Amino acid sequence: MAKTLYVGNLPWGTTEADLAEAFRPHGSVISSRIITDKETGRSRGFGFVEVEDADVDNMIAAMNGADFGGRQVVVNEAKPRQGQY
Q1: Which of 56-62's residues contact partners 24+ apart within 8 Å by CB, and which partners?
Q2: pLDDT single digits (tens) 15-69
């Protein structure tokens, strides 16, 4: 089973590969994505990492507050989207 982690306060130039690589030493990364502005294509400074369920606590403990590209990232378990049909 997989869970999704929210990762905030990312540097603007972060790529999906960068994000996955940062989490990989702490567990199994299934996928990663950076959220971008629809009009400009510029990063909005946050993204999501899909990880194995068993690795969630370890990854949050290791990465929440960690330095990533000179910024202190915020990592927590993503909440399901509401209002989606």
Answers
A1: 56/3, 56/5, 58/26, 58/27, 59/5, 59/23, 59/26, 59/27, 60/5, 62/25, 62/26
A2: 999 999 999 999 999 999 999 999 999 999 999 999 999 999 999 999 999 999 9
Contacts of 35 (CB under 8 A, 6+ apart): 43, 44, 46, 47, 48
Where is pLDDT greater, at 72 or 84? 72
DSSP the chain: -EEEEEEES--TT--HHHHHHHHGGGS-EEEEEEEE-TTT--EEEEEEEEEEGGGHHHHHHHHTT-EETTEE-EEEEPPPPSS--
Cβ–Cβ under 8 Å, residues 22 and 49: no
